[in-house]
Batch of 3 targets.
Target 1
Amino acid sequence: MIPITKPMLGEKEAEAARRVILSGWTSQGPEVAAFEKEFAEYVGAPYACAVSSCTTALHLALLAVGVQPGDEVITVSHSYIATANVIRYCGATPVFVDIDPDTFNMDPTQIESAVTERTRAILCVHQIGMPCDLAAILDIAHRHSIPVVEDAACAIGSEILWQGQWEKIGNPQADVACFSFHPRKVISTGDGGMITTANAEWDAKFRLLRQHGMSVPDTVRHGASQVIFESYPIVGYNFRMTDIQAAVGREQLKRLPEIVDQRRELASRYQSLLATIPGLGVPVEPDWARSTWQSFCVRLPVESDQRQVMQSMLDAGVATRRGVMCSHREVAYPANAWSCVGRSEGCVCADGSCQRLRHSQEAQDHTIILPLFPQMSPDQQDYVVKALHDALGVMPVN
Ligand SMILES: C[C@H]1O[C@H](OP(=O)(O)OP(=O)(O)OC[C@H]2O[C@@H](n3cnc4c(=O)[nH]c(N)nc43)[C@H](O)[C@@H]2O)[C@@H](O)[C@@H](O)[C@@H]1N
Ligand SMILES: O=C(O)CCC(=O)C(=O)O
C-alpha cells in the first residue's frame, strides 16, 4: 500500500524523546524553549511560541488580535475544519470568501466586499503549503486596519517573494502565523503547533494563555531560591507542548531543509509525469511562491467521478484523499453559524451549497490528493501515476 503520507521520523527523534524522558522533566520546559528559539531562527521571526496544535495556535492568535463574541472573521470555507472552528471558539462568525480555483487559496478580490464594521480579523490559509497572495490581502487589511492571521499549518518551509527577497512563511509577513506539527504535515512532533509574531505583547499573551493564565511559569518557580507565589490574572487554557514533543521537533527542524527539497523534487516529477494525462489539471506555483507541497492536489477530468477514481486507486494499493473540505457543507455549520459575501435574509444557498463558494465546492468535489512523502521512490511515484491512468481509463499521451 502506498500511503498518503509518511512522517520522516527515525532514530534521531527516538533518541531525543528518550533523552527527555530519562531527564525527568517532560512538560513544557527547556526543550520547548530551545525549539521555539530554533524555529524562530529558521523562519526569521522575532518571536515563536510553541503550543499543543495548530488549532490551539489559531485560537490564541485570534484572541490576541482581539476577536470577541459577535465579531466577524473573514476566511475561507475551503480548509480543514479547524480554520473555521477557531473563529467559533471565540464566539465570532466566519465570513467565507471563495478561493482562486488555480491555487486553492483565498481569492483576494472577494475580501473587500466581505468587510463590515464587525470585521475583527482576516484569517488566511496557505492551503496545502502554497503561499496565499499575502501582498494583496495585506493591502486590503491595512486600508481597513484589520489584523491578518496566517494559517500556515501546512507551510513550514514554504517561501514567498517579499519586497524582492525570498522569505520563509512565518517571518511573519502578516501579524501572526500559526503552524502544525500533526503527522500529516511537513514535519511532526506527533501533534503540536507554533505561533510566530513580531509583536512582543502578543507573544507574552500567547505564553500566558497557553498555561492557564499563570503569571510565573512553573519552570521559573522550580529553579527559584526564594518562594514565589504565582497568580492567575486571566482565564487561560492548557495548550502546552511537552518537552518530549519539542525534543522531537528540534530533530525534525534539522531535517526540514532536506525534506522540503525532496518534496519539491517529487512535486516537479509528478508535474512532468502527469502532463501525459489528458484533461487532468496539474497544480502550478505562482512565480512569487515556493510551496512545500504538503499535499499534491490534481483536478480530475470533468467527466470522471471522484469517488470511483479514488476507490479504483485504493483497490490498486494507492491511498488518496478528496480535495480539501468545505466547512460550510458540514452539519456543524448550519446557515446561522457562518456568513458569506452578499448573504441576504432567506438566501436560498445558505444550506450547505453556496453559489458564492462555487470554486471551493468544485475543488472539494473534483480534485484528489496524491501520495507525496520524502521517502517515496521513483518506482512508487510511477506506480501512483499508472494507477491514476488506469482509474481514469486513459492512455498516456506522449
Ligand atoms: C490537506 C489537509 O490534510 C489533512 O487532512 P486530511 O483530510 O488528509 O486528513 P485525514 O484524512 O484525517 O488524514 C490524515 C492521514 O494522515 C496519516 N496519519 C495521521 N497520523 C499519522 C501517524 O501518526 N503516522 C502515520 N504514518 N500517518 C499518520 C494517515 O494516513 C491519516 O489517514 C490535514 O492535515 C489538513 O490540515 C490539511 N489541510
Ligand atoms: O487534526 C488534524 O487532522 C489537523 C489539525 C492540525 O493540523 C492541528 O491542529 O495542528
Note: Residues 3-7, 80, 128, 153-154, 182-184, 295, 321, 324 surround GDP-perosamine (ligand 1) (CB under 6 Å).
Target 2
Amino acid sequence: MMLRFLRQPSGRLASIFAALLCAMTAVMGSYVYSACQKASADYTTLISDIVLAQQATPQLRTALEEGRRLPSSEQIEYIDYFISLSKQHLNNIKSSIERHRYLISDVEYLNNHFSELNSRLSDLNLKAQKAQQRPELVDPLQRVAMDIGGAQSWLYNQLLEEVRAISVQQRFVMQRLSIAVSVLLALMVSAAITLCLAVIYLHRQRNVMQQLMLTDELTGLYNRRHLVNVASAALTQAQRDNGSLSLMLLDIDHFKQVNDTYGHPTGDEVLRQISKLLRKLSRPSDTLARIGGEEFCLLMPNTTTHDALQVADRLRREIEVNTLSGIDLLANPTISIGVTTCHGGSLTFEQLYSYADKALYQAKALGRNRAESQLPPTEPTPYKNPQAYAHLLISEPIDS
Ligand SMILES: Nc1nc2c(ncn2[C@@H]2O[C@H](COP(=O)(O)OP(=O)(O)OP(=O)(O)O)[C@@H](O)[C@H]2O)c(=O)[nH]1
C-alpha cells in the first residue's frame, strides 16, 4: 500500500517534501546546536578578572611611587607583592580565555603578548627582590614597571574590546536562534500536518479500494465476492447453531425486452431503481447483492423457508406495484424469485445456491412474477439406528 502510494505523483511529491524537510531539519538542528553553545557562553568571570587586573596596575604604580619616596624594605616587599599579584591576574585571565573556546581564535594574536608580559613580570619580580638589598635600584625598577604597566593596559583594553565584540555577536546569535527555533517549529508542524494528510489520503484510498472490491459499480449493492464471503461465514454459523439460513435469488422478468425497447441506459436505470427498492425493503441484517446482469441475491440468516417465502412475496408485490420514477415504461417490471433454506447441515454456498437457482427456474417456468422454493434433502443423521447407540446416552452410575 505504501509503495503504491509512493509511486503515485502525490506520493512522490510527499516523499520529496519529507526528504527536504529532513535535510532542512538536520541543517537547522546543527545550526541551533552550535548557536546554543555560542549563546550560552558566560564571559562574566573573564570580564571581572580583566577589571581586577586593570586595578592592580595603578596599585603597583602607587607602591613604586611610595617606594621611591621612602625606600624601606617593607615598601619594596609591598612592590614585590603587587608585581606577583599582576602576574597572578595575568595567568587567571589566560586560563579564563582557555575556557571559552569561541573566544580563543579571536584572541589568538594576543598569545605572544601574554607570554612576553609574563616573563617581563617575572624579571620585574627578580629586580624587586634585588632592590630589597639595594634601594637605589628602585628608580630603574619604577621605569621598567611603568613600561610593563603600559603594555598591560594595552593588552587588557584589547581583550575587553574582543569580549565586547563577541557579546554583540552573542546577542545577534540569540536573535537568529529564536528565528531558527520558530522556523524549526513551523517545519515540524507542517511535517506533522503533511503526515496526517498522507495518512488520511491512504485511509481514504483503502476505503475506496475496499468499496470497489466489495460493491457493484452500477447499483452500489454488494457484489458476488462479498456475498460468497458473508454466506460462507453465515453457513458456518448456521451449522454451529443448527439454525436456519435462507437464500433468495431474484431475477427481473423479460429484462432483455426492457433493454431492447427502451435502450441500455434505461435498462441501467431500472436496475438502479429496483436495487434501491430492494435495499429499502430488506432487513439490515440480511445481505443483498447483485450477482449478475439482472439477478440479485438476498441472504437471510435465522430465517425459515416459510418466512423467506413471505419476504419474497412482499418484495415481488412491491416491485410489481411500484412505478419507477423518471422512466416511462409501458408496464412495471416484475421479478421471479427462487428460495431455499438450510437447517444446520453441511452444505456449501454453491450447493445452497443451486437449490435457489432450481427454485428460480421453476418460478420462471410457471409463468414468472412469482416465488418458488426448493429445499435441500434432509441431511443424514450421524446415528442411522438410534437404538444401536442408546447405551451411549445412558449415564454411568457414579461410584460412591
Ligand atoms: N441495462 C443493462 N442490461 C443488462 C445488464 N446486465 C445484463 N443485462 C441484460 O439483461 C438481459 C438478461 O436477459 P435474459 O438473460 O435473456 O433474461 P430476461 O430477458 O430477463 O428473461 P427472463 O429472465 O427469462 O425473464 C440481457 O439483455 C443482458 O444484456 C446491465 O448491467 N445493464
Note: Residues 233 and 349 are 10 Å apart (CA to CA).
Target 3
Amino acid sequence: MTALLKARGLRKTYATRRGGFMRAPTRFAAVDGVDVTLLRGRTLGILGESGCGKSTLARLVLGLAEPDAGTVNLGGAAMPRPDTPEWRKLRTRLQLVQQDAAGALDPRLPIRAQVAEPLAIHGRDQAAADAVLSSVGLNRAMGARFPHELSGGQLQRVVIARALALDPEILVLDEPVSALDVSIQAQIVNLIADLQAARGLAYLFVSHDVNVVRHVSDRIAVMYLGRVVEEAPAAAFGERARHPYTRALLSSVPVPDPAHRRAGVPRIGDPPDPSAPPGGCRFHPRCPHATDLCRAEVPPLRSLSAGHAAACHRIEEITKCA
Ligand SMILES: Nc1ncnc2c1ncn2[C@@H]1O[C@H](COP(=O)(O)OP(=O)(O)OP(=O)(O)O)[C@@H](O)[C@H]1O
C-alpha cells in the first residue's frame, strides 16, 4: 500500500525555559529522529506521557512547525515552508483536530458559519457545510446554534466537521477525546472510526490514553522523551509488547484510581524532565533492567519481527520473542 504521508528523521529543538539571566541558552530535542508513515484508511497511534513530544510531532507532520532536521513528504511532494501559498494549498489535504474544541471555535459565530468558513476561504460551495455537519451527527437546527449552546461532545463534532469540510485525506487528531467525559469519549471515538471507514481517511492519532489508542489504531508508536521506543501493530500491544516502557504503560492501565489512569503515568520512578533528557537510553533512570550499556549508549530502534521494532539493548534478554 502506498503511503499518503512519509516523514523521516524528524527533529525539533526548543530553548530550555530554565536558562536564566546571564546563562547561555541551551536547547533540547522535543522530537529526536522520528519517522511517521500514514496509509489511506489506516490509523497510526502515537502513545506517550505528557511532555514526550507528541504535540510537537503532530505540528511537524502538519507543517505548522519547521523541523531542525528531517523531511515530511505528502503524496510525493515535500512539505513547503509554513505560511507560504504552497503550504496553504497542501494543508487542505491535511487537517488538525485538537483537544480543546471550545478554544478552537469562535464564540461569536454560529457553528454552521464556522464549518462553512474554510469552504469560503478556498472558494468552494458553502452548501457542503450542511452535509458535513450531518455526517458528524449534527442537524440543521444545531448548525444555527452558537458554541456556548453546545455540549463538549457536540463541540468536538463541530471541530471534526470543520476539519472535514475541505475533504482532506489525512486528519491529525491531537488528544481528540481527552477533555471529554468517558461516556462521551466512546461516542466520539466511534464517530472518528466511522468517518475513517466512510472516507478512507488516514489518521495520526495522538494520545496518552493506552485504551483509546489501542482501540482506534492499526499501528502504534510509543514515544519516550522525543523518541519512538517501540512501534508495532495494535494487535501486538498487550501480551506481545516488548519494550520495558511500553510494558509499564500497559500495566498502568487498569488501576483503581481513575485520576492515575487518566494521567497515563506508569508507576515506575518519577516522570522525567523533557528539557533535560538523560544520556544513553533515555528511559534508563526508570528502567528496572538498566545496565552500564544503557546508561552509555542510545539503543537504536531495530526490527524484532515483521512490522515490530523496539529500541532497547536488552530486549532479547528481558522479554520472550513475540
Ligand atoms: N514552543 C515551545 N517552546 C519551548 N518548549 C516547548 C514548546 N512546545 C513544546 N515545548 C516543550 O517540548 C516538550 C514536548 O512538548 P509536547 O507538547 O510536544 O509534548 P506532549 O507529549 O504533547 O505533551 P502534552 O500532552 O503535555 O502536551 C515539553 O517539554 C514542552 O514543554
Note: Residues 182-199 form the longest helix (18 residues).
